[in-house]
């Protein structure tokens, strides 16, 4: 094995360790303590180095932390109100939705704003733009894990509500793809598991 290959494998080992150590840890596993904004900036910088077809850089983030989560609480409560009305059960108590915004010290909305040409048409497909945002979130999450911060991409319910999207300026053709919530872990770091890669690859060699 050449020295170049040996050095390459050693570098890949460090990277692989970070990749394997990245874990999804939800709200119940986060301590309420605040997180230094410098760490969030480091995560966002990593996200910004994601690839995108056509260099469209479609990832858009909004960070809510500290008192700033009050704005998120309003958005979650407004979304809950819309959802309740749609279900035909209007309610005035949206305290659960409001409370959720304070259940993590940091929330980062994951937005996708596609590049448009002069005629207003998509420069790339929506699929390509979403894939680029997913690459950005992976960079963000890997960096969070490397910093020791627990976090998770949440992509269901209120996290993708049209009312929340609108409040974040992510109306069509933009999309709200969820939220990344994070904080210092309150539990042991989780261990992951994967089925063998051999089950998912076909080689022709
Ligand atoms: C695009 C995307 C959306 C996700 N949305 C949710 C979600 O809504 N709720 C949830 O509990 N986990 C969500 N997850 C986290 C997955 O459950 C998690 O990645 C998976 O269980 C593997 O665990 P690991 O990330 O620790 O390796 C999401 C992950 C991705 C990539």
What are the key terms here?
4 strands; four-stranded antiparallel sheet; globular; 14% strand; 205 residues; binds flavin mononucleotide; NADH Oxidase
Total helical segments: 6
Identify low-pLDDT runs: none
Oligomer: single chain
Q: CATH H-level name... which superfamily? A: NADH Oxidase
DSSP strand content: 5-15%
Biggest sheet character? 4 strands, antiparallel
CATH T-level topology:
NADH Oxidase
Integer tally of domains: 1
Judged by helices, strands and strand pairing, the structural class is: alpha+beta
Bound molecules: flavin mononucleotide
- From the N-terminal CA to the C-terminal CA, the straight-line distance is 20 Å
Order of the strands making up the biggest sheet: 1-2-4-3
Structure, described:
- The protein has helices spanning 3-21, 37-48, 69-86, 95-100, 126-147, 162-167, and strands at 59-65, 106-112, 150-154, 175-183.
- By secondary structure, the protein is of the alpha+beta class.
- The protein has one domain: NADH Oxidase, CATH 3.40.109.10.
- Strands 1-2-4-3 form a 4-stranded antiparallel β-sheet, sandwiched between helices.
- The longest helix has 22 residues, at 126-147.
- Flavin mononucleotide binds next to β3.
- Flavin mononucleotide (FMN) is lined by residues 23-24, 26, 152-156, 192.
Gist of the model:
The chain has 205 residues and is α+β, with helices and mostly antiparallel strands.
Layout of helices and strands, plus pairs?
Layout: H1 3-21, H2 37-48, E1 59-65, H3 69-86, H4 95-100, E2 106-112, H5 126-147, E3 150-154, H6 162-167, E4 175-183
Antiparallel strand pairs: 1-2, 2-4, 3-4
Helix pairs in contact: 2-5
The structure holds flavin mononucleotide (FMN).
Flavin mononucleotide (FMN) binds at residues 23-24, 26, 152-156, 192.
